[in-house]
Amino acid sequence: MNTEQTRPPIDYGQLAEAIRGWGLALGFQAIGISDIDLRSDEARLDAWLADGRHGSMEWMARHGHKRSRPDELLPGTCRVISARMDYLPAPMADSWTVMADGTQAFVSRYALGRDYHKLLRKRLQQLADHIRERVGAFGYRAFVDSAPVMEKPLAQKAGLGWVGKHTNVLHEKTGSWFFLGELYTDLPLPVDEPGVDHCGSCRRCIDACPTGAITGPYRLDARKCISYLTIEHNGAIPERYRRAMGNRIYGCDDCQLVCPWNKFARYSEEQDFLPREGLDQAQLTQLFAWSEAEFLRRLEGSAIRRIGHERWLRNIAVALGNAPSEPGVQAALKARLDHPSALVREHVEWALEQHSRRLRSDNTDIKGD
User: Fold this and answer.
1) What is the C-alpha to C-alpha distance for residues 23 and 27, in angstroms, rounded to an integer?
2) Cα(242)–Cα(239) distance, integer angstroms
3) What does the pLDDT read at residue 64?
4) Residues 6+ apart with CB under 8 A from 358
5) Where does this protein hold [4Fe-4S] cluster 2 (predicted)?
6) 216 and 128, same structural domain?
7) Would you say 282 and 93 are in contact if contact means Cβ atoms under 8 Å apart?
8) Three-state SS at 92
9) Does the annotation place 180 within a ligand binding site?
10) In angstroms, rounded to a whole number, what is the distance separating the alpha carbons of residues 265 and 191?
11) Is 231 inside any structural domain?
């Protein structure tokens, strides 16, 4: 990627302002520009990987230092244009209310609507098209969770916020309910001031994590994280975390829900992020009954679809094991006892055992009275 030699003179300051304007017109809420120096973040990433805190996400280490050295991933890169898009949908069932009802399924709010990857990538391409119309051919590539990119440190360097103690990006005026996307480019644009940490002494996210995955400020052990366990992990969910999962069947938002900065969060105006298939307050038994064909059809265009039907059933089986011991719940589980997947059967058997223990305990209490 080297178009600098053939490019006519450009006022990069004016171009940066134009890029911000085009970004806002395309539905992004903020655009920031950073250099590509990620040396301090590279050291933290190396230590995180060395400790094995990435779990089975071997792809985190697969590309060497291309993740922390943008010009090695895309030669010629000297700047990164980071873009923020809010996703919190409205109207939407209240998260705490859903989690308090053991018969309902909780889905992380980012996954209720259309898969954001395609939407953001399309908008980033449109942003690149605007730039090309202004300056002619230039080197770039758009990324939305599609390659080894350290999007959070880059967003902080670009002034879009700071990486909070829960390791999500926060902004003091908008909270953390947003997606990030990047354009790597060879345009030597002026860079923005980096975001400043405003977490202070607060530790609500650390205290609220159901499985203790946030092991300290700015330290996440993915192996314990419910988002990792329900989405990235493809094996059996360790039993020590199953009760803590509650009814969370895809992702976990607790650390964001308790964050004081999210009182400033804004609802998204993107219609594609509105809940589909009633996933903001669906019944567990209803979702558990979906055949694989129905799962694929109903979740067409959803980020959830990529975990596959087997992990979908695995996750819901755990939630049903934590659900109230009602006849409908146990009947739904028993209907999957002969599922062809050993992974699903093991989690169904565990769930039924939870209800058996509960009922035995209840009967013991009654006899004692």
Assistant:
1) 7
2) 5
3) 82
4) 325
5) 209, 225, 252, 255
6) no
7) no
8) coil
9) yes
10) 26
11) yes
Q: Which of 185, 213, 235 finishes a domain? A: 185
List the domain range (segments joined by +) for residue 27.
4-92+109-185
Whether 237 and 312 map to the same domain: the answer is yes
Annotated ligand binding at 205? The verdict is yes
- Catalytic position from the list 101, 145, 197, 272: 145
Residues 243, 165 share a domain: no
For 201, the token pair is: 């002494």
Helices 342-368 and 327-334 cross at an angle (nearest 10°) of: 150
Say whether 78 counts as a known binding-site residue.
no
**145 in active site:** yes
- Two tokens at 320? 């049903």
Say yes or no: 307 and 228 in one domain.
yes
Nearest by Cα to 114 from 261, 225, 279, 245: 279
User: Does pLDDT of 185 surpass 70?
Assistant: yes
Residue among 165, 200, 188 nearest 80 (CA): 188
Give 90-123 pLDDT, tens digit per residue: 889 999 999 999 999 999 999 999 999 999 999 9
- Is 367 part of a structural domain of the chain? no
Per the structure, the count of domains in the chain is 2
Q: Which residue has the tokens 């009922």?
A: 359
* Distances 253 to 135, 227, 250 between C-alpha atoms, Å: 41, 8, 10
Token pair in block for residue 304: 């959830």
> Helix (H, G, I), strand (E, B), or coil: what is residue 226?
helix
Domain boundary among 185, 217, 252: 185
User: Whole-model pTM?
Assistant: 0.93
Q: Are 120 and 26 part of one and the same domain?
A: yes
Distance CA 146, CA 135 (A): 26
Q: Distance (Å, rounded) from C-alpha 191 to C-alpha 188?
A: 9
Which is nearest to 224 in space by CA: 199, 254, 188? 254
Dihedral, CA atoms, 358, 360, 361, 367, nearest 10 degrees? 150
Token pair listed for 193: 């001031």
Structure tokens at 248: 């969370």
Question: Could you tell me if residue 369 is inside a domain?
Answer: no
Same domain membership, residue 173 and residue 114: yes
Residues 9 and 50 reside in one and the same domain: yes
Reduced to 3 states (helix: H, G, I; strand: E, B; else coil), residue 220 is strand
| Tokens at 156, concatenated | 């902080």
The answer to whether residue 193 sits within a structural domain is no
- The answer to whether 355 and 330 have CB atoms below 8 angstroms apart is yes
Per-residue pLDDT at 366 exceeds 80: no
User: Are residue 137 and residue 73 in the same domain, yes or no?
Assistant: yes
